[in-house]
Amino acid sequence: MRAMKKVKTLLITGLILAAGSQLAACGTKEAATSAEQTATEASAESKADTSADANVDPITGETYPDVINVGIIEGGPESAILIQQNFLEGIDVKVNAVNYSAGTDINNAVVAGDVDVASFGSSPIALGLANGIDYKAVFVSYLSGGNIEALAVKNDAGVSSVEELKGKTIGVPFGTTAHYALLKALEIAGLTASDVTLLDMGGADIAAAWTRGDIDATYIWSPALDEVLKDGTILTNDGELAEQGISIPEIAVARTEFAEKYPTLVNQYVKALLNVYSAIQNNADQSVADVAEWEGATEENARGQVNDNIWVSGEEQLTDDYLGTSAGKGKLAETLKTISDFHKEQGNIGTSPELSAFEAAIDPSYVEAALKSNE
Fold first, then answer.
1. Could you tell me where the beta strands, DSSP code E, fall in the chain?
2. Distance from chain centroid for Cα 24
3. What pLDDT does residue 212 have?
4. What is the pLDDT of residue 16?
5. CA 245 to chain centre
6. Looking at residue 374, what is its pLDDT?
7. Are 364 and 252 in contact (CB under 8 A)?
8. How many angstroms separate the CA atoms of 137 and 304, rounded?
9. In which band, very low, low, confident or very high, does the pLDDT at 14 lie, cut at 50, 70 and 90?
């Protein structure tokens, strides 16, 4: 944050010279002119200092908050790289980065005003928009691939395919991308949620329940995924679902009220996410190490998160496949609508908004501004 400069106060003292009327008149005119120039210069300096150094958003003129609250999702490789490589330091105010175990927790924090920006899964974002949470999608970090999330079964469960999960107990965090992926995997296999017993569990609870033998399978991400695979086998994953047409993007959002008041801070958050993309392209090995260390995941799992996900560049963000532009929204709105409709069919929400509601919740202007500032 830039410090405020003290504005100088200039006191002008007029001197009256009585050495003759003509000289006096001349001296008075010169003194007045000098005083006027000095006052004008002082005013200009004051305005320049205020414009350059006042802690305000240069776009809106709103005084910056003391802190920006950034939601950090457990098991998110973009979150790991943001933190490990200190990309959030490019934001003009103090950053309060808070870890959350699931996207549903971030939704609750946004509603409470405790999170201003965050990158997390598309399923909780679609559910959040369907339930009236007021935030904007401002970036697509990646499309899930590989074992970013996976459906694992215990080795002693006697199950070798998704179809054989009928009658089994499966732990999954409800309302998350893993929950959505699990339901889609069951659907593809000809099963429904009523064919299995679903338990709403976070990652730590899943790992504990796995050890106790309380669940037969789980759809989850690291670090819990690494734990269960010590005595488990993967049946399917986000990568295989992607090949079957199931798109699961990781999306960054900004709380609408915050974004409208402080667009520059949101632009800087988006630039941090663009830096994550660049880091992966330019030094994938370092990014793998960052993910492994931050998540406590194996190097193999971390490498899969970096190499198997489909990372989206700044320029691609503004194409029809993703955000689109301010003049015309892209297919991300359709993806969110599809996810919302599916949850309605599953009985997880009462109604699913029209496509126009999801289009209105997408704002490419922050990527546009971030890219322009890099030119």
1. 67-73, 94-100, 117-121, 135-143, 149-154, 169-172, 197-200, 217-221, 232-237, 249-255, 310-311
2. 70
3. 96
4. 29
5. 24
6. 73
7. no
8. 26
9. very low
Residue 326 pLDDT class (50, 70, 90 cuts) = confident
- The β-bridge relationship of strands 67-73 and 94-100 is parallel
Lateral strand order in the sheet of 217-221: 197-200, 169-172, 217-221, 149-154, 232-237
- What is the chain's Cα-based Rg? 28
Token pair for 101: 């175990």
pLDDT for 375 equals: 67
Tell me the residue type at 254.
A
Q: In this structure, what are the phi and psi dihedrals at residue 156, rounded to the nearest 5 degrees?
A: -95, 15
Could you tell me the pTM of the whole model?
0.83
Q: Which amino acid is at 88?
A: L
Which two three-digit tokens encode residue 27?
Answer: 């001296």
Q: Which two tokens stand for residue 2?
A: 């830039």
Collapsing DSSP to helix, strand or coil, 159 comes out as coil
- DSSP for 73-115 reads ETT-HHHHHHHHTTGGGGSSSEEEEEEESSHHHHHHHHHTT--
pLDDT at position 373 is 81
Whose CA is closest to 118, among 92, 133, 139, 132? 139
C-alpha to C-alpha distances, 5 to 8, 44, 46, 48, 49, nearest whole angstrom: 9, 14, 9, 10, 7
Question: What would the two tokens of residue 329 be?
Answer: 């929204």
Interacting residues of 354 by C-beta distance below 8 A, sequence separation 6+: none
